[in-house]
Write a structure and sequence with these properties.
The complex is a heterotrimer of chains A (562), B (295) and C (316). Helices cover 28% and strands 20% of the residues of chain A. Chain A has 17 helices and 21 strands. In chain A, helix 16 runs antiparallel to helix 17. The two termini of chain A are 26 Å apart. Chain B is mainly α and 295 residues long. Chain B has a single domain, classed as MetI-like fold (Orthogonal Bundle). Chain C is an all-alpha fold and 316 residues long. Chain C is built from 14 helices and no strands. The chains are: A alpha+beta (562), B mainly alpha (295), C mainly alpha (316). At the A-C interface, strand 9, helix 8 and helix 14 of A face helix 2, helix 3, helix 5 and helix 13 of C.
Chain lengths: 562, 295, 316
């Protein structure tokens, strides 16, 4: 990534709106310039995009997109399709800059879109936008989308943030206002990932959960729904009335290839033009690099790989144990050998690209001798079979992850050996996803898991969902704090951070929280993921970003070099 | 075994007899070969790990993907630098154990169900056999996967799941045998003499049905080894770091291009073991039940 | 005949009912559930998960859920997929094509090759060919389908680059030739076991027919050997094979599942695996019922055809 990609997410009161509008106006040229930074040689010298949509791109995904109502529960791969069919009010581009989409501008305190207390919001919409069926897009659609998310009968994908909205009022077809029941800074970011749905279609549905719309979606995005062959592929066609840049492609095809190895083979033989989502496995990276007429990009991803522990288990209650375990992990070998040095070692939970990333958090050190002495000092003495024990508790636990993730299973086995060296027993018990990520994980039935998580709230560095003591699902909380981590200092810092729009203040709070959490070690971070994705050399426009979960967020600017 | 073959040899014109003898010899040799292969494999897997210089679980990440026949690791190393030969041997322990244990369970269950259904007939018998038919309606892998997806994978649970999909054939064979034996003189005589049902079933009838059970069991070992491989291949099998031939194959998939030996060798071991049991099973079928000689 | 059909129909319905109970129990009693993939969505709350469970009807007692399912089934409503909320029958219909294609083409290969091997083995009994065919068949039955698939991919796709490594067709091409080329490797892999079984049974059947009186009579009458072979022996030997073909259906379906996995074939097997992975209960149940119906139907048709082909057999 170029350095400027780490620049701040500009949603503070000081946000430079004129710069945003200029970026928007520059449109296509800006896109080419940015891709030039990422892609080597020939791609940079590429010509301008075609005048009319031309050609098609085959996008390979290793999971099958099946949910096409973007407000219903969905996973990353579905989002990969949503980005092309629908539009949010605004989005965060690959640099973290907010760019208006359906909105005419991004509301801030400076431009008066958000009141000083953060409670009143006013959003002006871009005029003249049309749904794929030709109907005009208006403020009614936005209100409808928000209302739908809060409709208790609707299977909403998330209510986080929306539930704070009150008095949503349509002022004119291109303007609406609402109140928040408390100031909530991440809301701007949450709206980056909220796609608008048409009131004139879904509003008429008897039950929006089962409306035909869900399988024949109508959006405002750069591409329109064309066809789905279940189990195989989805075809979208260019939207000639798209309000933004492009599209330059006649069709995009999302091809479902359930096996990463096969997907790579097909990338090799050229049957797919872009290999996305889980992308190329680290094992194939060296092979991929040497491919002719392909560009392989190692980009950052927002996911952090870590050993997450269930702190309610007696083995993990003591901080000394967790610290010793962390000293006992040979993370460097994991990254260098098993992941071929591609991801970045880390000891915290935010991606380095985030503006709230704290670079001063103590780095991880592999020091088995120190690990042993910490355990000795804490009274964990080797017992039968060399496994340490204290007060009748054996330092032995299970570790689980999604069965079939071979690379991760290798890392697991390496850790198993690492910890065995310091007298700790780890037993591997992997499970199919539908088992492990259900109640087992969510209701904290596990000992420890190896998992890659994006802790942020959309593109916002708010991690309340994961670390607040009120976010423990096993204790009835709303959130993902399945480690049952409780620290009231962290609670306060994170809550304060989310309630102010002052970037500097938020940053200070979040830095402090990161240091406390590094000290407490409720989880043992290993590395920040790198996505290894590839495109054909003459496909222009691909830009990986940590602010989205799938890098098909800007296909409207993709085109084939002439 | 050879005695049985001798006694079942028919008297026929000289040329045909010679050919048949030749055929039996050939078959006999195949069965012997199968038996030999099984014995060698069992010994290798049982004793080998204790004699071999490398440990199957020892990770040596700096020597990952060593090629076979090129260095100290005779069959090369895997993705974590573990010795492949050592892993193949201890994987054999797992796979063969699953094979034998699943066979034992399925044989016992199948025999019980078959005997009870065949002996009592009527409502109990047809209820049991309809249940058998219902389970047989599931293509075996569908049933296997449905079950395997829902248990915590362990040596024990995998064995149970495989046994659960393999007992029906035994039940059918036994039921048919017992049903026909039930009306024979010796069974009727036992009943007249006041023997209990259990005595008649298990003391009088079952010993006479032992031949097809032995044959079906042998073939079931082969089947179980294959099924373990399938379950592991589809990701529902034995947990790491314990190797089984199936999960070794599963892990080898993505190295098919860069390290093909990781996939080829476990596959060959599976084929050797399964072919061995199939040969022996076929040989036993001829030896124990000449009427079943379809080839 | 009508009585036979009615009886068989009744038996089949009872069987299907049993199948549905076994399937339903296995699916629902197991750990995990369709909500697992939602729990990782940021901002998902336990309350919301409860609501989703309620809307999907997953919070009701199991017997009630079964009864619901059963009642809907009776009126021909197979339910909707949890994943894409499409009717289960539509989902199955969308995946059945590729599987049938694979099964038909592999059956053709198996019948042609299996017949050839079986007939030749019977004619030249105890020859080197027969011996090799016997051993070969035994080994073929011992090769794990997926391993054979991987080896085929390694040799023909990776090393020689003659055949594609998977998929139904090349996106954007889709000509008949393209389809055919993609079909070769998976059909051959799937056919392997069937060739072995078919050739063994056919050989046995041939040998039985050769010893029949009417063949001896024909030979005594001086009918040429060729005519005896093709007119009488092979034709009659193929008769019992109809039953074998019907009984092979479950094996073929199982094999198709594995082959589809190796060759990323978007058929029923893939669908079944994915649906199990997502705990898409309605679709898994649908596939189980569908395949059970197929198997029962296969058996029935085999019996009927056999009776039609052989006048000595009467169904009653």
């Amino acid at each position: 990534m170029p350095d400027d990609a780490r620049s701040d997410l500009r949603l503070s009161p000081t946000m430079d709106i004129s710069r945003l509008s200029r970026r928007r106006l520059l449109g296509a040229t800006a896109a080419v310039g940015a891709s030039g930074l990422l892609l080597p040689g020939a791609a940079r010298a590429a010509s301008a995009p075609p005048k009319r949509p031309t050609g098609h791109v085959v996008i390979g995904f290793s999971q099958e997109p099946t949910v096409f109502n973007p407000l219903m529960p969905h996973i990353e791969v579905d989002q990969g399709v949503h980005w092309n069919l629908f539009s949010p009010l605004w989005l965060a581009n690959e640099k973290g800059d907010l760019v208006p989409e359906l909105a005419a501008e991004v509301p801030t305190i400076t431009n008066g879109g958000i009141s000083k207390d953060g409670l009143s919001w006013r959003v002006k919409l871009r005029p003249g936008v049309k749904w794929h069926d030709g109907q005009p897009f208006t403020a009614d659609d936005v209100k409808f989308s928000f209302d739908l998310l809060n409709n208790p009968k609707f299977r909403a994908w998330s209510r986080n943030g929306y539930e704070l909205m009150r008095d949503i009022t349509v002022v004119s077809p291109t303007e609406l206002t609402w109140k928040m029941s408390k100031p909530y800074a991440p809301m701007v970011s949450i709206l980056c990932w909220t796609f608008m749905v048409p009131a004139h279609i879904l509003g008429k549905a008897a039950d929006p959960n089962t409306s035909p719309f869900n399988q024949a979606p109508v959006g405002t995005g750069a591409f329109m729904w064309k066809q789905r062959v279940p189990g195989d592929h989805i075809t979208l066609a260019a939207n000639p009335h798209y309000f933004g840049t492009g599209p330059y492609l006649e069709e995009i095809i999302f091809k479902y290839i359930p096996d990463l190895t096969v997907m790579f083979t097909q990338f090799q033989t050229g049957s797919i033009d872009y290999i996305g989502l889980q992308g190329i496995t680290a094992d194939h990276y060296n092979q991929a690099k040497k491919l002719k007429d392909r560009v392989v990009v190692v980009g950052p991803a927002p996911f952090i790989e870590s050993i997450t522990m269930n702190l309610s288990k007696p083995q993990f209650k003591e901080r000394a144990v967790r610290e010793a375990l962390y000293y006992g992990m040979d993370n460097k070998t994991i990254v260098e050998q098993i992941y071929y040095g591609l991801p970045k070692l880390t000891s915290t939970y935010l991606p380095t690209q985030s503006w709230a990333y704290n670079p001063h958090v103590a780095p991880h050190v592999y020091d088995p001798a120190k690990a042993k002495s910490i355990l000795d000092a804490a009274g964990w003495k080797p017992g039968s079979g060399g496994i340490r024990e204290k007060n009748g508790v054996r330092l032995s636990f299970q570790n689980s992850t999604t069965a079939g993730n071979h690379v991760r299973e290798q890392a697991q086995q390496l850790l198993q050996q690492n910890w065995q060296d310091i007298g700790v027993e780890m037993k591997i018990k992997n499970m199919p996803p539908a088992v492990i990520w259900g109640d087992y994980f969510n209701m904290s039935h596990y000992d420890s898991v190896m998992v890659g998580e994006d802790f942020m709230t959309g593109p916002d560095p708010d991690v309340s969902q994961y670390f607040l003591s009120s976010a423990i699902p096993a204790k009835g909380g709303a959130g993902q704090n399945t480690m049952e981590y409780v620290n009231h200092d962290v609670d306060k810092l994170l809550t304060d951070g989310a309630e102010t729009f002052d970037r500097a203040k938020r940053k200070a709070d979040y830095w402090k929280a990161a240091e406390i959490i590094r000290h407490d070690l409720p989880q043992l971070p290993i590395f920040q993921y790198a996505t290894i994705e590839g495109t054909k050399k003459n496909l222009i426009g691909y830009k990986p970003s940590v602010y989205v979960s799938t890098n098909t967020w800007n296909v409207n600017t993709w085109y084939w070099a002439a | 075994m050879s005695a049985a073959i001798e006694t079942s040899a028919p008297s026929a014109p000289a040329r045909r007899a010679r050919n048949r003898a030749l055929a039996r010899f050939v078959r006999h040799r195949l069965a012997l070969f199968g038996l030999g292969a099984i014995i060698v494999l069992v010994l290798l897997c049982a004793i080998g790990p204790y004699l071999w210089i490398y440990n199957d679980l020892h990770i040596d990440i700096r020597h990952r993907f060593a090629e076979p026949f090129m260095g100290a690791h005779i069959l090369g190393t895997d993705a974590l630098g573990r010795d492949l030969f050592a892993r193949l041997m201890s994987a054999g322990q797992v796979s063969l154990t699953v094979g034998f244990a699943a066979m034992a369970i399925s044989t016992v269950v199948g025999t019980l169900v078959g005997t009870v259904a065949g002996y009592f007939g009527g409502a109990i018998g047809s209820a049991l056999m309809r249940f058998v038919d219902a389970v047989l309606c599931f293509p075996s892998i569908f049933l296997l996967l449905a079950l395997a997806a829902f248990v915590q994978p362990s040596l024990f649970s995998i064995t149970l799941v495989i046994a659960a999909t393999a007992w029906m054939e035994v039940a059918r064979v036994v039921e048919a045998q017992i049903r026909s034996l039930r009306e024979r003189d010796f069974a009727l005589a036992a009943r007249v003499l006041g023997a209990s049902d259990a005595h008649i079933m298990f003391r009088e009838l079952l010993p006479n049905a032992i031949a097809p059970i032995v044959v079906a069991s042998t073939l079931n070992v082969a089947r179980a080894i294959l099924l373990e491989a399938y379950v592991s291949f589809l990701g529902y099998g034995i947990q790491p770091p314990t190797p089984s031939w199936g999960n070794m194959l599963n892990n080898a998939q993505e190295y098919l291009v860069t390290a093909p030996w990781l996939a080829l060798l476990p596959g060959l071991f599976i084929i050797l073991a399964v072919t061995g049991f199939n040969f022996v099973g076929d040989g036993l079928r001829d030896a124990l039940d000449p009427r079943l000689d379809i080839t | 005949m009508t009585r036979f059909l009615l009886r068989r129909l009744m038996q089949s319905l009872v069987l299907l009912w049993l199948v549905s109970i076994i399937g339903f129990a296995v699916l629902h009693l197991a750990p995990g559930g369709p909500l697992a993939e939602f729990t990782l969505i940021p901002g998902m709350t336990p309350a919301q998960l409860k609501l989703i469970a309620h809307q999907m009807g997953l919070d009701r007692p199991l017997p009630v859920q079964y009864w619901e399912w059963f009642r809907r089934m009776l009126v021909g409503n197979w339910g909707r997929s949890y994943r894409d909320s499409q009717p289960v029958l539509d989902v199955i219909a969308a995946h059945i094509g590729p599987t049938l294609e694979l099964m038909v083409s592999s059956t053709i290969i198996a019948v042609v090759l299996g017949t050839w091997v079986g007939v030749l083995g019977a004619i030249r009994r105890y020859s080197v060919f027969d011996y090799l065919a016997t051993v070969g068949a035994m080994i073929a039955l011992s090769i794990p389908t997926f391993w054979f698939g991987l080896v085929v991919i390694y040799i023909f796709s990776v090393k020689l680059a003659w055949l594609p490594a998977g998929n139904l067709y090349t996106v954007g091409n889709g000509s008949f030739l393209d389809y055919a080329v993609h079909l070769i490797a998976p059909s051959v892999v799937l056919a392997l076991v069937t060739i072995a079984i078919w050739s063994r049974y056919l050989r046995a059947s041939m040998l039985e027919v050769v010893n029949q009186d009417y063949i001896r009579t024909a030979r005594a009458k001086g009918v040429p050997e060729r005519t005896i072979l093709f007119r009488h022996t092979i034709r009659n030997a193929l008769l019992p094979m109809i039953t074998i073909a019907g009984l092979q259906l479950p094996t073929l379906l199982s094999g198709a599942l594995v082959t589809e996995t190796v060759f990323t074939w978007p058929g029923m097997g893939r669908l079944f695996l994915d649906s199990i992975g997502y705990r898409d209960y309605p679709v898994v149940m649908g596939i189980l019922m569908f395949s059970a119906i197929l198997v029962l139907l296969g058996n029935l048709i085999a019996d009927l055809l056999y009776a039609a082909a052989d006048p000595r057999i009467r169904l009653d």
